[in-house]
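Hello forum,

I keep getting stuck at the same step: I have a sequence, I want structure tokens, and every attempt I make locally crashes halfway through. Rather than fight my setup again tonight, could one of you with a working pipeline run this one for me? It's a single chain of 260 residues.
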Amino acid sequence: MDAKEISVRALQLGERIEVKGLEREDAVSSVPLAFRTSGDGMVVLFKSGAAVFINMTPVEEEELIRSLGARIVAPIEDRETENAHLIVKPDEDEAVSTSRALQIKSADRDRLLLVAEALAMSVALAYDERRIAVTFDRIDTVARTLQEQRLPPSPRGTLLEQIGEALTLQQRLARRVDLDEKPDLLWDHPELERFWARLVDEYDLPQRGRAIARKLEVIRGTADTITDLMATRTSHRLEWYIIVLIAIEIVLSLYDIFWK
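Reply #2:
Ran it on my machine without issues. Output:
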């Protein structure tokens, strides 16, 4: 790519993308899967459900998304999007300009793959952040109910759904590369570590990942607490039912002794 300015757009298409079977001889990279498109574009696909389009038009992007078809698992209707504007300046240091553009020395394969990696992580985290915000709103309602010394009126199924949501998000985080680890590409190209560090800092990747992990612990802890409280309440009800049954049995026994 010899362009002096390059547009990059990342989309979270679904829960994940089945990339197995999409390998091709002209692929730019196998992990993540990246290949050139018609013209001067490139697409990078991630198992986490993100796709990054480099120097492609919206029409070309949608055509490629449609071609993926059923390989997109649990497609997202309201997709998370992250845009970046790359400015190629070979004679200047790589940096983030005041206009939020990413200034790079060259549009070589390795730098573009690192940009794609950072944007893919960012949209995946944004997707998790949006989902976890909804669950956190529910937890806030539960907390206010407990402050009033009442158990929440939500049925057990709703609480189990919240626990399941937290577990799903934790699995998504576990499936992705550890945000504190470096991409595999840097092991072969250590000279790009400073560039990667700038990208990580620009998109706050580790901090956002840790914030999600902390919120997940709060959600799971709250859901477990409420489940235990409801189980205790159910246990108390069973104890009263047993007491009532025993009392009825005693009354019937006395009736048989004194009135028959």
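The chain has six helices and eight strands. If your local run keeps crashing, start a new thread with the error log.
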